[in-house]
Amino acid sequence: xxxxxxxxxxxxxxxxxxxxxxxxxxxxxxxxxxxxxxxxxxxxxxxxxxxxxxxxxxxxxxxxxxxxxxxxxxxxxxxxxxxxxxxxxxxxxxxxxxxxxxxxxxxxxxxxxxxxxxxxxxxxxxxxxxxxxxxxxxxxxxxxxxxxxxxxxxxxxxxxxxxxxxxxxxxxxxxxxxxxxxxxxxxxxxxxxxxxxxxxxxxxxxxxxxxxxxxxxxxxxxxxxxxxxxxxxxxxxxxxxxxxxxxxxxxxxxxxxxxxxxxxxxxxxxxxxxxxxxxxxxxxxxxxxxxxxxxxxxxxxxxxxxxxxxxxxxxxxxxxxxxx
Length: 324
Description:
The protein has helices spanning 11-14, 19-35, 41-59, 69-81, 86-105, 133-140, 148-163, 167-172, 205-215, 243-256, 267-279, 284-291, 296-310, and strands at 178-180, 184-188, 198-202. By secondary structure, the chain is mainly alpha-helical. The protein has a three-stranded antiparallel sheet with strand order 1-2-3. α7 (148-163) packs antiparallel against α9 (205-215) and α11 crosses α13.
């Protein structure tokens, strides 16, 4: 016996609705998608936070009776005037776009007010500069590898400069995420992922040696669930490090190496890897297998910045040999 299917009328056309109810339905839908493995939990949290910020602001506005492009652009202006950075604005807006796209797709609304609002982020230029090859080597030389702390620091640095893993992936890594079947691999807990399911290959001798040297003194090296990089002090021995502590450690090593440029941060290690691969003529698609970027445009941005630094068009200006 066939099951009857009914389709409800769009709420935006057929009847009025309680916005709070619709937003909660969206949150519930995201929760079910997280449980089904279709969406990362962090993504759902970020989207929900962005929509909550917009809706709180909108409820305090008397100038707008309905949500439209003008209201969203006014929200952008409000955030800019409040000191929000472009990337932060783009992150909040991602939640608003996700909500209205869902609402239209689920026939909750008949119109998507985000359709004509671009909501650009921080532009195509990176906010952090890569380390030069010489700077990478200077930083790698700083840890005192005669101590467990120095072995840990060098292993973390080598992992970042030879594989391009992100700070959050270093922090999330567990001992059991390291596997070897001929080649040493780390299954990274990637950006927007709930599980450690992105293979990163540790093939350069420096990173292989540094990782094994650290594992030899890891206080919980036999525990597969232990943090790969853990605390060594009395208060947090064997416990997880924080991303803030990792960034502080890297910045301190920069200072020891004489690198004081504020535009060079932990992210600069990842940028150094990408620019190094580009200089060595590695195809962009192959670089994406290392960085795990989803868009080729991201790699092309690195290539453009490198070309501007190494071969600027301005260097070819020659008025003496021009035409009459």
